[in-house]
Amino acid sequence: MVRNFQARGRYCRQATLRGMGLLPKLRGALQVGDLTISRMNKGLLAALILVGIMVVVLAAMGREWICKCGTAKLWHGVVVSSENSQHLSDWYTPSHVIHGFLFFGLGWLIMRRANWGWRLALATLIEIPWEIVENTDAIINRYREVTISLDYNGDSIVNSTADVAAMFIGFALAARLPIWVTVVLAVGLVYPMDWVVQWQTKN
Known about the structure:
Layout: H1 2-19, H2 23-60, H3 93-110, H4 116-133, H5 137-147, H6 157-176, H7 179-190, H8 194-201
Helix pairs in contact: 2-4, 2-6, 3-4, 3-6, 3-7, 4-6
């Protein structure tokens, strides 16, 4: 009796939706939508796991979680200072946005059948090794020699994570914007401007 009642109820609901022309559309939306969302979520999850691995590795390397000054600023604009690459964003952040542009293009070239989630995972897999390598003693010492910033001891973990987030933003922008707009943005981010250079080097 209960099974017959449930079957009749299900049949009535389907008949109603079919009569309104909604059942085929609903089935198609659920099947295609669930499949697409599931695949994208897996790629995004893989990217986030990679970020988590990066955090663990940097912590194991002895990197500071935040600036030794005890704060985490949204922006720090003085390049030659002990707080450079210690906060959420700085003058190097635009370069990571451009990384997102480039990695999106790379993913489009070599992973055309993959959705953006897995392409983002590939971009993260490329970005993260550099975030780790640039915090090795060899790269830190090289940076000190080039910039004469003897107070620099590597990026904070917060800064490295924010750099990857900036790459995510660049990737998302490249995925949504027309190619010519992305190119214009990239040129605008790298084109040298005198007032920017003066601001970067002021103490």
